[in-house]
Amino acid sequence: MNISLPEPVGLELTDIRREFGDNTGLHSTSVNIAPGEFVSLLGPSGCGKSTMLRCIAGLETPDEGIVRFGNHEVFNSYQRINKPPNRRNLSMVFQDLALWPHMTVAANVEFPLTTGKQKRSSAERAQRVVEALQKVGISDKADSKPSELSGGQQQRVAIARAIVSNPEVLLMDEPLSALDAALRVQIRSELTALARELALTVVYVTHDQAEALAMSDRVIVMESGHIRQFASPMEIYENPADTFVENFVGTVNTLPDGRSVRPEDVELDPHAMLQGTVTDRQYIGGAFEIYCDIEGAPRPWLVRTRQPLELGETIGLRVNASTTSTQKRINHVS
Prior knowledge:
By secondary structure, the protein is of the alpha+beta class. The protein has nine helices and 18 strands. 27% of the residues lie in helices and 30% in strands. Helix 3 crosses helix 4 (151-163).
């Protein structure tokens, strides 16, 4: 039996709004995500990213607007269309993985295929489970219980369960936040490779900037229920749309005249006119992060170097203004 994968679909939100009594939530928003695109929703707590995800999933009913999966409307407030989550051909992975503790790994993965519209024959269920477990690399754990697995293995079970039904759209709400740093990097690499292999359209909620930049084709940066920028990770970092995006994504050093540069565009230079006083030093493995006070700057600068500078030491700093990204940022923000 050869199980074919569905064609990837685009995702379109038109004037979607879901506001709460305290004026939080999601204000009128329009987004167009291409078929097979991996898009992260990034922003501080309460910015509306989870509300947007829940509106896409059908777990939250928008006040108004339209949600389309490809050419099919799954929500339209004007036509009173509101398909339930189980009729939207999507899967979700949450921070709380919600694995059934009394079921084996195979049974957990099989579960979405045993009920409702997605119900399949026992033979097809068995094959899909085998394929899903192979894709996430835990075939040898099929007969284990979740309590017998590590955190990373449990995460892989949740991902296998999400893809076993061949969804058109995969929604993920901070699924890696409970993992340790090294495992989080490993799983995110596996997840992006799997999304490409299956041509999934993915919407991924995270508060981790590095995660969003590393995994995504494009990133939506949100604040207070509004989209501040929707662009590629490089565009957001190199050419932020406004001061909020610039300061939220990565670190910026602000010059006394208000211009700003990224730490990687600053080098130690004993002959430089710009002087700083070292106020803190943190070793991060292979380099030091140096914080220094600059006269007239609104806050301390961050500089990375392999030199173990001393607290209170005066250093010269040279801004590499010839760097294209720096010049664009200076021109844009000033």
